[in-house]
Specification:
Layout (H helix, E strand, L loop, with lengths): L5 H12 L13 H15 L10 H19 L6 H14 L6 H18 L1 H11 L3 H15 L7 H13 L6 H13 L2
Helix pairs in contact: 1-4, 2-3, 3-5, 3-6, 3-7, 3-8, 5-6, 7-8, 7-9, 8-9
């Protein structure tokens, strides 16, 4: 695999942190960043009786977004150490300091284990069960599309995985292609 483009990685991080093009006026960050703030808070409050500031639904959304991108990234069978490291670093940076590195490391290990145990279809179904809002479904595809561009473009297998996710999330047939086109346009700036 060719060396990863650090300029492209920086662009992906900026796009993941920014509101999507379809966000309402006045929205200042992405759904990913908002969900990360709740997810990251959990580590500090696990020992507390009342987890003030922790929103379990936001944490579930964060996990679904990252797992979806993980499924797309590994779909082509070429999720090597360099890609895994870039994926890890991009997610960590896009979370704006709300999520600790150890949390991302543990989360990716959990996803690998769950995928091995459950298989792809079950993982897609679990993601679908966690998502009820159309804007969250669109964010899943947006994040997956941006992260898929980190290494040598998006393969047909990765596109197919995004289409399977879109279908399970109740989005129209062209939603995956649309997310990829938006990501490509955003990254070309």
């Amino acid at each position: 695999m060719p060396a990863l483009d650090t300029s492209l990685i920086s662009k992906v991080v900026r796009q993941l942190s920014a509101p999507p093009v379809y966000a309402e006026t006045g929205v200042r960050g992405s759904i990913l960043a908002a969900a990360a703030s709740s997810y990251g808070f959990r580590a500090d409050v696990d020992e507390l009786t009342q987890p003030t500031g922790f929103d379990p639904e936001a944490a579930q959304l964060f996990e679904a977004i990252i797992e979806s991108a993980y499924l797309v990234a590994q779909a082509d069978g070429h999720f090597d150490d360099a890609e895994r490291t870039a994926f890890h670093q991009v997610v960590l940076a896009a979370c704006g300091g709300f999520v600790a590195e150890r949390q991302i490391t543990a989360l990716l290990a959990d996803f690998a284990e769950q995928l091995a145990e459950d298989g792809v279809e079950r993982r897609i179904d679990m993601i679908g069960r966690a998502i009820s809002k159309p804007e969250h479904a669109r964010e899943i595809l947006r994040v997956a599309a941006l992260l898929a561009h980190i290494s040598s473009g998006v393969s047909d297998t990765e596109l197919s995985m995004m289409q399977r996710l879109a279908t399970r999330l109740g989005l129209d047939h062209g939603a995956a292609e649309h997310a990829l086109a938006e990501a490509k346009q955003a990254l070309s700036r």
